[in-house]
């Protein structure tokens, strides 16, 4: 991360700037404690940035909820919004980029929309 910044600080900074710019409120449920592998941090930041860009472009959300946790089994990221949601599978270049960032590290990422209720992006990267 920039200037020796850890993943939690980078996420906080990104969320703060994004919320001020977009006017969309952010609820932070959890951020990772401790050191996170640089490759994992890059994957999380890439997917995180794309998830927030999708919220801004497509969702009409008023609030985004975020949780990124680091445990014995690995890292888990969840980004949920209260926007319009969608029908069918999540497709598109942004979704493919988010999935690729996680699968490159042996993880997985899902994007689920519920029409009228919002969208949730969930990614996991197992501990190596």
Structure description:
The structure is a single chain. This protein has 128 residues and is α+β, with helices and mostly antiparallel strands. Helix content is 38%, strand content 30%. It has helices at residues 7-22, 38-59, 93-103; strands at residues 25-30, 63-71, 74-81, 108-114, 118-126. Strand 4 (108-114) and strand 5 (118-126) form a beta hairpin. The radius of gyration is 14 Å and the shape is globular. The relative contact order is 0.18. The model has no long low-confidence stretch (mean pLDDT 92).
Q: How many DSSP helices?
A: 3
Structural class: alpha+beta
In terms of per-residue confidence, which ranges show pLDDT below 50 for 5 or more consecutive residues? none
Whole-angstrom Rg = 14 Å
Calculate the mean pLDDT score and round it. 92
- Tell me what portion of residues adopts beta-strand conformation: 25-35%
Number of strands: 5
Written as H for each helix and E for each strand, in order along the chain, the element string is HEHEEHEE
The termini sit apart by 20 Å
Largest pleated sheet: 5 strands, mixed
Strand order of the largest sheet: 1-2-3-5-4
- Please bin the fraction of helical residues: 25-40%
**Based on CA inertia axes, which overall geometry fits?**
globular
Write the layout of secondary structure elements.
Blueprint lengths: L6 H16 L2 E6 L7 H22 L3 E9 L2 E8 L11 H11 L4 E7 L3 E9 L2
Parallel strand pairs: 1-2
Antiparallel strand pairs: 2-3, 3-5, 4-5
Give the tags:
128 residues; alpha+beta; five-stranded mixed β-sheet; 5 strands; globular
């Amino acid at each position: 991360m920039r200037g020796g910044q850890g993943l939690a600080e980078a996420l906080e900074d990104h969320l703060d700037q994004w919320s001020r710019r977009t006017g969309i409120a952010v609820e932070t449920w959890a951020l990772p404690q401790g050191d996170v592998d640089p490759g994992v941090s890059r994957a999380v930041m890439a997917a995180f940035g794309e998830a927030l860009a999708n919220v801004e472009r497509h969702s009409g959300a008023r609030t985004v909820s975020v949780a990124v946790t680091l445990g014995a089994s690995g890292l888990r990221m969840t980004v949920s919004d209260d926007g319009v949601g969608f029908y069918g599978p999540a497709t598109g270049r942004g979704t493919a980029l988010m999935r690729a960032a996680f699968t490159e590290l042996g993880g997985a990422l899902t994007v689920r929309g519920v029409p009228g209720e919002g969208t949730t992006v969930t990614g996991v990267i197992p501990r190596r």
